[in-house]
Input
Amino acid sequence: MARTSLKQKVKQFLIFFLGTLIVMGVTVAGYAFTTLLLSRNSTPVSSSNVFSCGSATGGEMDHAIATFYSHNGQGEVTPTWTNNIKWDCVYNIKDFTGSNLVEQFNAARDAASKNGGGVVYFPSGTYNFNDSIKLKSGVVMRGETPQVRSAKSKDYNPPAKLVFPQYKPQLSGNGTPNETSFKSIQTTTPDQDSNIGIINLEINRASINFVGNLDNSKNNNIIIFGIRSNNVAKPDPQVPNLEFQHPWQRYSHRFASNIEVTAYQNVLIANNRINDNITDNYEQPGYRLHSKDKKNIITYQEGDKVPFHYGNHYGIVVNRGGKKDGFQLAATPTTEPGLFRKGIIIRDNWVYHTMRVAIHASGDGLMIQDNEIQDQPNKKWWTDPTGTREATGAVTLENRGIDWSGWNVLITGNHYQVYRHHIGETNYLSVDGEGILIQECCGGTTVNNVIIKNNKGNAYIGLYKVQNINNAIIENNQINHSDIFVMADTNNQTYSMNQVKIINNQVSGNIIAKASLGGQGNEISGNQGNQRGKIDYSCSIEINNNSGFNLQPCTSLR
Output
């Protein structure tokens, strides 16, 4: 083989050297370009999706929840699972087309879904939808961030507004068809769809309804944040009863809700403003219904006696939706696993309600914190909850602030108003009006480790007829015009309670704690009354340093 000349060796070296420089230059330039893209976003963007997600116009790319709580000096509040949302992959709704806004939204949603998830972004403006819409797994709807960020402020007003069809009643013939209105935002596969949410949007005339099978769903990581929700309702399916009611009659279904979610784990419902601007209520003169004794048919000629009301239902519901066959009494994780899902947080919301429950939730580790609940005083109502019968003096319309269940629960820092309805022109009030309540029925559970503290309200705190009450602390609450009530005995059987402590509360009513089978570690101490209430208790409970109460003789064990 011939030797390589010196000239050829030099030539080969120069080619190798220049090639190496070119490769290094391309690498450095690529790194610099990637770094520049990442610097646009306060939340890091993975290198795998820099070139593969989002639409041309895009939108805000920060982690909306972390930004909000960091802005409030509460950075530690943000659940870590919210990092699973692809906040940096933003699909601007205006970059997509369709024959109507539903199709336009579906195009943006599907683009995000095909690329592994992301945010469908709504810049400031009004978006008129003609029908319900559905999210897909991994997709979040997000509006432009409001200038006033706290939903508790009366000035809270998200600039991106979704408007759905209004129900326009016709009080004759068959009335206006229900399908013309009463829309919702749902998810395509509610038992599975995860890493989804709705953020910083005003939503008028559509409920948020992510509801699947409470016991078998596997969905997780759901966010409802920064929503202003008004004019939500659905018609009761039993009205009209054509045997005696006009075909045009409608009644607001008591089991509707502004926001309802069922999930296997991890739900954050925070910083929402509900029912602050209801505009669509309407009167129904000539409404027919049964008399109290069900023997006669009567007609209310006055239209205000049975209005179709957009506030007569639940506000926020998480893992407490009705089951077809009902819940077992005093549920445990064995008997009703769906009531013990983990990672449920409901906080910093403003809710106006006039009937049913403002916040209705269950979970293991459930947190209900720093919510503000408003109600209408001097309410009057003329029908029973079905809308088919005149109200009796013993009617319950379930006016409640917080109805909770589960284990390892924290309820703290909430301010609430709850008022009972006046029944027609009688002197009766509706049989309800609880402030913070758990009971053994209707999705209630046994009590195992609950802290109820630093709440302020005008209606009672009750652990009402719940068998097996263990480890309950009711502390530093301010209860005006009402009571603290802990009762382990049920209608059917007597029970004990253990480690129940009612301490350092201000109560302008009574403190009543009863467990006929006794128990250990129970105390009522350091509470302050206003000289009008009493302390009524079982003899197994220790009483210390309370003032302003009439202390009753203890009740002996059975």
